[in-house]
From TrEMBL:
InterPro entries with a match to the protein in the record: ARM-type_fold, CHCR, Clathrin_H-chain/VPS_repeat, TPR-like_helical_dom_sf
CHCR repeat start-end pairs: 9-151, 156-297, 311-471, 475-616
Taxon lineage: Eukaryota, Sar, Stramenopiles, Ochrophyta, Bacillariophyta
Superkingdom, taxonomy of origin: Eukaryota
An example Gene Ontology molecular-function term: clathrin light chain binding
Name under which the protein is recorded: Clathrin heavy chain
Annotated GO CC locations: clathrin complex
Alphabetical GO biological process terms: intracellular protein transport; receptor-mediated endocytosis
Length: 642
């Protein structure tokens, strides 16, 4: 009969309606008939009541597979209604309930139901087979229910990497059960997981357990410093520093903040040196002073650590260079000097670095000139010429320091090439004469080095200062005749004839100039060195002897003039020289050679004045040959009373 009823219900379903037909079956307790009837229409029905009743009848008849199928595949039933029924039914097979709760997010209720009903194996089935991604929700509920930790660990290990780590960690952490995840997390890492969430959580566990956390933070490449850094701050600020340091620049602000808050200046100093980032340096060095004008104490402590510890420990030229640039950019010359002193003067791999030595001296020139001399004395590998030029510039006027540089680097141990040594020595004496205006020191220095270019440089300076005698001596030592025109002018002005003679003799060895020969003749004349004068004019020369003879004659240098006029056979002038020298007989002889009336008259008159009447008569007889001049002779005799 039941089969007939089912067939009738199927046939007249549309006319009678499913709701009335269901009531008929239920009123007659015909559960099996209801199950078969609904089974024929459920796949096509969009009536939630039909679906619910089919699930219900399936469960009542133990047809759990069919109930599971509809719960899994149907979108028609009301979830809450089905869920409540299945929970109350307490079926031996909870898979229909599992599907309903999974599909419609009743995971908490499902977990609680399965746990309280000791269906633990189905919890494991759910998270491993049905929905591994909802493992965190299941675990969270189990935590809340006080479930056995070993069971939770077991299901986590069973799910493995299918469980979303971030959500799982958050749920465990909010319940203070993070340590329970350790085996699961370590297993994930062992399989090659690089998810930051996995490594973040494992890091938190190791940090909490103090299980070599520094090694983890230093060596692990996958955790997020922005997660572990803040986590460490309240536990151990030094670990937070390590974590932020791992951020490779992304956590610089946090790193600076924690360093200042907890006084981690040494760690920060080392980090700054290693990072080689000028922008980062600017963040910590470019700080304004406090309101009362005092230096920021945090910056001072940091700078002290950089200078005293971090940079001297570095063996990287790039690190040193970047740090130095940072101090320069921050305009900290005093601190830069201290920093460079620590690197260079107190021994490091960079003690002989030329650029650093240059920078130390230049910084001292700009900021603390009292240190410059000491640095020049102590340092041996800097650009001597360039720095010396800066020292003597108008902005600095460090003349003694420049002189010291030139003197030091003119020595063979610093400058091997002889020409370069002499160039340095010339520059050294140049400072003495041009800037210090100390000719005495310059002369002493020239005597010490005894190099011709040095003497020459001194001579020019002495000449400028009207020290003609000293200049002549210097030019002689230099064997330098180049300034002969000026030397001659100054010698004439200073009337230093004896001193100028050696210079002129030296100059004639390399130069053939009229002025040189003429001035040498004049100097011999002025010093009454007649032997040398006669010897000189008798030899080859390019002097203007007539001119210099006239000059000597006009200045009363008659002996010299006599030699000169004799040399050029100017007997007229020679006769006059003899007259002035009271050599009347020689005057008559010269007049005879000259044989001109003017000369005869001059000699005649001179002889008359001297009482040399016989010689005067000889001259007068010659004048008589010129009738126009006879009266002049007669008158001269008469005037003298003869």
């Amino acid at each position: 009969n039941m089969q007939v009823c089912v067939e009738v219900a199927k046939k007249y379903h549309d006319e009678l309606g499913s709701e009335d037909l269901i009531a008929v079956f239920e009123n007659n307790k015909a559960t099996e008939g209801l199950y078969y009837y609904l089974g024929s229409i459920v796949n096509f029905s969009e009536d939630a009541f039909v679906h619910f009743k089919y699930i219900q009848s399936s469960c009542m008849l133990g047809q759990f597979k069919e109930a599971e199928r509809v719960c899994r595949d149907s979108n028609i039933y009301v979830p809450e209604e089905v869920k409540d029924y299945l929970k109350n039914a307490k079926l031996p097979d909870p898979r229909p309930l599992i599907h309903v709760c999974d599909r419609f997010d009743f995971v908490d209720e499902l977990t609680e139901y399965l746990y309280l009903n000791s269906l633990l194996q189905y919890i494991e089935v759910y998270v491993t087979k049905v929905s591994p991604t909802k493992t965190p929700m299941v675990a969270g509920k189990l935590f809340d229910l006080g479930a056995n930790e070993d069971f939770i660990k077991r299901i986590l290990m069973a799910v493995g990497s299918a469980c979303p780590v971030d959500e799982m960690v958050e749920i465990a952490e909010t319940r203070n059960r993070l340590r329970l995840l350790q085996p699961w997390l370590e297993a994930r890492v062992a399989t090659g997981s690089t998810e930051p969430g996995t490594h973040n959580a494992l890091g938190k566990i190791y940090i909490t357990l103090n299980r070599d956390p520094k090694a983890f933070l230093t060596n692990n490449m996958f955790y997020d410093p922005k997660v572990l850094g803040p986590y460490c701050e309240s536990l151990d600020p030094s670990l937070a520093f390590v974590a932020y340091k791992k951020g490779a620049g992304d956590c610089d602000d946090e790193l600076i903040a924690i360093s200042h808050t907890h006084g981690l200046y040494r760690d920060l100093a080392k980090y700054l040196v290693e990072r080689q980032d000028l922008d980062l340096w600017a963040k910590v060095l470019n700080k304004e002073d406090t309101e009362d004008g005092q230096e920021d104490p945090q910056r001072r402590q940091l700078i002290d650590q950089i200078v005293e510890w971090a940079l001297p420990e570095s063996t990287s030229a790039d690190e040193v260079s970047c740090t130095v640039k940072a101090f320069m950019a921050a305009d900290l010359p005093g601190e830069l000097i201290t920093l460079l002193e620590r690197i260079i003067l107190q021994g490091s791999d960079f003690s002989d670095n030329k650029n650093l030595q240059n920078l130390l001296i230049l910084t001292a020139i700009r900021a603390d000139t009292t240190r410059v001399a000491s640095y020049i004395d102590q340092l041996d590998n800097f650009d001597a010429k360039d720095i010396a030029l800066i020292c003597v510039s108008e902005n600095h006027m460090l003349y003694e320091e420049a002189h010291t540089i030139y003197v030091k680097f003119s020595k063979p141990e610093f400058t091997q090439d002889k020409d370069d040594q002499v160039e340095m020595q010339v520059s050294a004496i140049g400072v003495l004469v041009d800037f210090l205006k100390d000719l005495d020191r310059a002369k002493a220095y020239a005597s010490q080095v005894d190099e011709k270019p040095v003497w020459s440089r001194l001579g020019k300076a002495q000449l400028e200062e009207k020290c003609a005698a000293d200049a002549i001596e210097s030019f002689i030592n230099a064997e330098d005749p180049s300034e002969y025109v000026k030397v001659c002018d100054e010698a004439n002005e200073a009337e230093i004839w004896t001193e100028v003679i050696p210079f002129l003799v030296m100059a004639r060895k390399t130069l053939q100039e009229n002025l040189l020969d003429t001035e040498l003749i004049y100097a011999y004349a002025k010093t009454n060195n007649l032997t040398e004068l006669e010897k000189f004019v008798s030899g080859p020369n390019v002097a203007n002897i007539q001119s210099i003879g006239d000059r000597c004659f006009s200045e009363g240098l008659y002996h010299a003039a006599k030699i000169l006029f004799t040399n050029i056979n100017n007997n007229s002038k020679l006769a006059l020289c003899h007259i002035h020298l009271e050599e009347y007989r020689e005057a008559v002889a010269a007049a005879t050679k000259a044989n001109n009336v003017s000369t005869w008259k001059h000699v005649c008159f001179a002889c008359l004045r001297a009482g040399e009447f016989r010689l005067a008569a000889t001259c007068g007889l010659e004048v008589i040959k010129y009738p126009d001049h006879v009266d002049e002779i007669v008158t001269y005799y008469s005037d003298l009373g003869h």
